[in-house]
Amino acid sequence: MAQKPSIPKGTRDFNPEQVAKRHYIFNTIKQAFETFGFQPIETPSFENSDTLMGKYGEEGDRLIFKILNSGDFLGKIDETIYSEKNSTKLTPKISEKALRYDLTVPFARYVVQHQNEIEFPFKRYQIQPVWRADRPQKGRFREFYQCDADVVGSDSLWQEVEFIQLYDTVFSALKLEGVTIKINNRKILSGIAEVIGAGDKLIDFTVALDKLDKIGEENVKEEMLSKGIPQGGIDKLQPLFSLSGTFNEQVKTLKNILASSGEGIKGIEELVFIDTAINALGLETAVLELDVTLARGLNYYTGAIFEVAAPITVAMGSIGGGGRYDDLTGIFGLKNVSGVGISFGLDRIYLVLESLGLFPETVAKSVDALFINFGDAEALFSLKAIKQLRASGIHAELYPDSAKMKKQMNHANKRQIPFVILVGAEEMQANKFTLKNMVSGEQSTLDLDALINQIKKS
RNA sequence: GUGGUUGUAGCUCAGUUGGUUAGAGCGCCUGAUUGUGGUUCAGGAGGUCGUCGGUUCGAGACCGAUCUUCCACCCCA
């Protein structure tokens, strides 16, 4: 015997029930995407390394799964490079392909590559797995699904408004209440950085600011100081740390801080536009919240930044994120095409729904009716009936072996099949079917039409 | 990538300062019941204690490595 088989760290098998639940989420998201006018595309699970490397920052490069070249990939390596043992230098020589890290960069590549076939603005959605060589934790896997919807080729802020509605639509359809859609704007962040004299340290500044609710004001200030942001600038941030209140109150404070920054003011205007529109349109269950500390996400966001927080009752990281990126396709040579999009983290949404018990009971149903097998003659007779049941949309099957009754009944019970149909010699003779309701235990003998009606009725 | 944590039957877990043949509940299989599952009763199967190595007369327990789980960083869905 070989050793016990296993799967790689951070990956999972899914049993039928789990797949049913995942499909429930997929289908809900997919339906919402389509009613909002998005069209699906798919891209390869692996791309050329050039396409991915360098797009997610240094940290991102580390987390990209590289695919080893085929053949004698070491034989062709220059001796000096090989003997240096420098992984960063050697990697591109032995790996020219990599698993996709997200869906946005492959989409940007797709847009550039197919720019002449695409009718802009192009609204696409994409539901596919992505891979990250991260250390797994709860809600953090090395293989997981992203469900992305993006629009390219339109600067309009109405897109942002629609994406907020899309989030609201999906989470309402999933009956997941208490979701918070946090919004911020990169222009505000870079405006603040400019005002405090850290214009060249935008990333360090935002990364530190993003940790406010986690590590506290003092630690944030400390981190900023250590990154070389002047004390005088940090003092100017004071009103930011105590920022609270409604959307409008926060906006008022921000206007004071950003009075001297044209870009910052522009960011505020964008936020106000979006908030005003959402207020006029209304949201079903989600809440839109301004969060100036929201800076997470990819470095390429240029305007709006979104992040969706699960209800506070469940300890889970963000279950979605997105934003506006004015120059995404620029890295692939196509200038002046603006994009904006959002992503749903399927695997985390699953965990949230599971912990709140929000999956409908019906998702895991297998078949409606199982025919007990009494022997070849009865089986053939049953299959004729099964053909009719299936034609009328009933999920029906025959137990394949004429095993003991107890075994067959037990099988139906364990699979939670609601109806069992018994056709023995007597029934065959009378052209009738004995229908047993496995929940109530009730039994009745019916002809085929009555049988179909009875099952369909339930 | 850094630091910590976890692993015993299919599942959830006991297992004393290192000491005979490693236990329980649930689940599973068989029978009571050859055309009736879920309840009940009787019986049964199932573990090289994550893996490899070390210490010891003796290791599930101690030490090391490795894999895995979860957690905190980093980062992120």
From TrEMBL:
Gene3D superfamilies: Anticodon-binding domain, Bira Bifunctional Protein, Domain 2. Its main location: cytoplasm. Its EC number is 6.1.1.21. CDD domains: HisRS-like_core, HisRS_anticodon. One of its GO terms (cellular component) is cytoplasm. It comes from the Bacteria. It catalyses: tRNA(His) + L-histidine + ATP = L-histidyl-tRNA(His) + AMP + diphosphate + H(+). Belongs to the class-II aminoacyl-tRNA synthetase family. Homodimer. HAMAP family: His_tRNA_synth (MF_00127). This is Histidine--tRNA ligase.
